[in-house]
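Subject: Interface between my chains keeps coming out wrong

I've been trying for a while to get a sensible model of this assembly. When I model each chain on its own everything looks fine, but I need the whole thing in one frame so I can look at the contacts. Pasting all components below, labels as-is. Any help appreciated, I'm running out of ideas.
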Amino acid sequence: MSQIIDGKSLAAEIDAQTMVETEQLKQNGITPHLVVILVGEDGASQIYVRNKERRAQKLGIKSTVIKMDSDTTEKELLAKIHELNQDVDVNAILVQMPLPKQIDEFKVIMAIDPKKDADGFHPVNVGRLFENEIAQTPVACTPQGIMEMFKKYQISLDGKNAVVVGRSTIVGKPMAALLLNANATVTVVHSHTKDLKEITKKADILVVATGIAHFIKADQVKDGAVVIDVGMDRDENGKLTGDVDFEKVQEKASFITPVPKGVGPMTISMLMKQTIDLTRWSV
Amino acid sequence: MSQIIDGKSLAAEIDAQTMVETEQLKQNGITPHLVVILVGEDGASQIYVRNKERRAQKLGIKSTVIKMDSDTTEKELLAKIHELNQDVDVNAILVQMPLPKQIDEFKVIMAIDPKKDADGFHPVNVGRLFENEIAQTPVACTPQGIMEMFKKYQISLDGKNAVVVGRSTIVGKPMAALLLNANATVTVVHSHTKDLKEITKKADILVVATGIAHFIKADQVKDGAVVIDVGMDRDENGKLTGDVDFEKVQEKASFITPVPKGVGPMTISMLMKQTIDLTRWSV
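Reply #2:
Try treating it as a single job with all components included. I did that and got this:
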């Protein structure tokens, strides 16, 4: 039986620390300011943006949401970002993805001042991460939150066999970089991988980010593995669940994250922490 | 018995193409110009720089070597790079590593205009590589040369199990990114890895960049594997050799690169090709 990693409690701890640091900055006359740009009417995006806004307000971080029409041109969005880059009152900028199809997402990511890159997706920040030169560098929030979990639960990574399932820019690739920087042996598997089970079964650390409900079953997991589930999926009854078959896998894993209350709550907390970091680094 | 990948011939083919493209640029009034900065008196670095200069001259590429004293300050070097960044006559800049210890190598890499980054080491270029957004992006020359070998010998990568031994910024990490972008399953192993043999024995594609002579023996290689040896080591008799025990491993591999005449000759050829690419992209 495994120990369940309590993402909700850890997120609350991080929030408490962020609140203290926000207050300290304010006492020095600096109000950290996160600007989130939402283009269009995507329902999920609206919820994500609202959650970020609420969390920022709760922690004392100034938050501005800029809503732009779904027919916004790329040029208009880039002009808005340029304006925010120049604005000394803005410390962190996040453009909620996905964007309407007339806009090139990578161009948008490239346009954000790397020093205000709340998501850590700008290639110069990604490059610094892969070159293990991460002083004053924002890093993707989800894998950063997972690293906090390893730290909190004293899970050692050095020399461990880590397998990352999924190779997205948001989770899989930065996760691989962070694990490699922590001296784990890292394998990235994905939709083209053959014999996936043979590889996941060797993982001491297994991070799953496929977006497919219950993609990882107990027979794909090593006894005593640490299993991190990044999924936010719906099961056949519409209930929120993860990429891992939690009920069965928890019988084999040494540590496991649940869904909900696992990785999910950490991501927003890391975004808030990163907003404070960007603010401090800019002073 | 394996097929030997002839890096020397392939490098000559690439050079021939680069020469044609250089001539075309010149006919349009553009002379590609590579500037190499050499700081200090390191013997190996002097040879590398001379080889680059000669190759450039042979292919019709304008080449300038700037020699700076070993007591050059970081500030002086950064000022020189800034000057070259501004110079419209310069298309590609390379600072020969290693640098004297008073100079922070990463700061130097960060200072080079990413659009003139001959080595492809600037984090914004590294980040683009990892985000698989490599249009008009320079990429580290050694792994790029290895990708040319795969292409030339029609070695498919999609779904293959690729293992990269070594995690340097120059070879291991960009190699991992290129293999992942080509849909291979990628594992990066390094000095902290346990059970290295168990992992290398599963590799369909094995790229070795450890700098340790004959680090990989036949019993660590799968039958039919493609083995790429990035090493440039000296054996006990001072003879140039690789990271792979070539004599024994060639009996198991399907393809193998020799040392010398394998990966080595490709690196300078890719640097010249990249100089031309940077020139074309800047027009």
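Reply #3:
Confirming on my end. The mean pLDDT of chain A is 97.
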